[in-house]
Design goal:
It is a multi-pass membrane protein. The protein is of the alpha+beta class. It has three domains: about 10-90, no CATH class; about 90-160; about 205-250, SH3 type barrels (Roll), CATH 2.30.30.60. Helices cover about 70% and strands about 10% of the residues. It has a five-stranded antiparallel β-sheet with strand order 4-3-2-1-5. Helix 2 (about 10-40) packs antiparallel against helix 5 (about 60-85) and helix 6 (about 90-130) packs antiparallel against helix 7. The protein starts with a helix and ends with a strand.
């Protein structure tokens, strides 16, 4: 077999196209990253939900865009190589490709939307729990964030036709695990919130009342779902609502 015959082999041409695509994809990704950085995109997206989420997983918006451009070219090179090598039925293959591209586009949009929603959910939960003085509470926003990301990941995989039943089972196991672990770790948190609901509904004391809970006494400044804040002279006591029931509650009268 001479060199001309070897070069004309579809498999050789396909391998050359694939190699060229890898090189071009890598160079395009590097070029896009440099251009985006030079144009000030990192500063423009700093602090946005997507950028915060990207940084939390060890990357950045610019890096993601650069990699997507590289992966797009890699994908085109792989598809072209498969076509040249005639590994699949050509007509059926391209019909499937045409059907698959919109699915991939929707899957990417789902992932991007998932990142944004996950970041917003983390911020909202963090803000809601900001006044809760329990160390275990700090992990709740992260649990919410990664739970949203996992669901978005499942939806994206389902969109491109991946069999996600095992991942759904894993999600169910994860949810049950969160409930069990949460019930153990956040026992005090749950008790305080249940006590807070009772206090808010029945209002045994209100803002401005002078009370004593255990050894702390003062004027009630705030009552929320988790804690009661009372003030005495220059000191403020933040008391978990569960202690209202565990310790003696006395409403003082002038």
């Amino acid at each position: 077999m001479n060199w001309q015959t070897l070069i004309d082999e579809p498999a050789v041409i396909a391998a050359a196209v694939l190699a060229l695509g890898i090189v071009v994809g890598y160079l395009v990704g590097r070029l896009n990253k440099e251009l985006l950085s030079a144009s000030g995109v990192p500063d423009a997206v700093e602090g946005t939900p997507f950028e915060r989420t990207a940084q939390s997983i060890g990357t950045s918006s610019v890096e993601i865009v650069a990699r997507l451009s590289s992966w797009f070219i890699y994908g085109i090179a792989v598809l072209t190589a498969i076509h040249i090598a005639q590994l699949l039925d050509t007509e059926a293959f391209w019909i499937r490709v045409v059907e698959f591209i919109p699915q991939v586009f929707i899957a990417v949009l789902v992932l991007i939307f998932g990142f944004i929603v996950a970041d917003k959910a983390e911020l909202a939960v963090s803000e809601y729990l900001r006044g809760v003085k329990l160390p275990e509470v700090s992990i709740i926003p992260k649990v919410v964030k990664y739970s949203v990301l996992y669901v978005a990941f499942l939806i994206a995989l389902g969109q491109i036709g991946v069999y996600v039943a095992p991942l759904l089972i894993l999600l169910a196991v994860y949810a049950v695990g969160i409930v069990i672990v949460g019930a153990v770790v956040f026992k005090d948190f749950l008790i305080s919130s249940a006590a807070g609901i009772y206090l808010l509904l029945n209002q045994p004391y209100g803002i401005g009342d002078q009370i004593r809970i255990g050894e702390q006494s003062g004027i009630v400044q705030e009552v929320d779902l988790f804690v009661t804040k009372i003030e005495s002279d220059s000191e403020e006591y933040i008391i978990p609502n569960r202690k209202v029931f565990e310790d003696e509650l006395v409403r003082l009268r002038d």
